[in-house]
Design goal:
The chain is α+β, with helices and mostly antiparallel strands. The chain is 30% helix and 25% strand.
Length: 81
């Protein structure tokens, strides 16, 4: 995911944290679940002048294949510099 985000958004700051263990016991999270929940903090010029919803949609669009592979949730804090 970091590679995709770096290529598509050229962020000034990118912090991607696996928080799957924080969701133990939630529906859809089993003892075999690996890397299903992430927290993303990203600062990119590409977010300038766009709404929060537009920014989130842009990230979801670029990570669509990751969701198909098992990514379940992505908490995002996105901003422009």
């Amino acid at each position: 995911m970091e590679t995709i985000l770096n290529e598509k958004f050229s962020p000034k700051v990118l912090q991607l944290t696996d928080v799957t263990l924080e969701h133990a016991g939630h529906p859809g999270v089993t003892k075999d679940s690996k890397e299903t929940h992430f927290r993303l903090y990203m600062v990119s010029q590409k977010f300038y002048g766009k709404s929060t919803v537009e920014n989130h949609r842009a990230v979801y669009q670029e990570l669509g294949e990751e969701f198909k592979k098992g990514l379940h949730a992505l908490e995002m804090d996105l901003s422009a510099p």
